[in-house]
Amino acid sequence: QVQLQESGPGLVISSQTLSLTCTVSGDSITTSYYAWSWIRQPPGKGLEWMGVIENDGRTYYSPSLKSRTSISRDTSKNQFSLQLTSVTPEDTAVYYCVRSVGIATFEVWGQGTLVTVSS
User: What is the per-residue pLDDT for 74?
Assistant: First the structure.
């Protein structure tokens, strides 16, 4: 059974960089067919797809966040990570890591982690 777990600071200061890691168990992040996404949900708002790292390491980002977002991976630890630079209070959200099929089907979700950006 595949499981995803987000980890990282729950509080980030404005203008700094938000960094989160997703640890995957029960599957390899290099397995063909699947990709690994980050999605967030600000309080009272809908889900926003941020970006994806595919099983071969290629990355794709939401156009609205591309200039501030970076997704990387550590295959030796079976982890993938998110960095979001120059954060503002508008980046306050629950952040989820997700196993996906491309960016169309989001199959397995982590429990999510709330990150608050303080001004």
Answer: 97
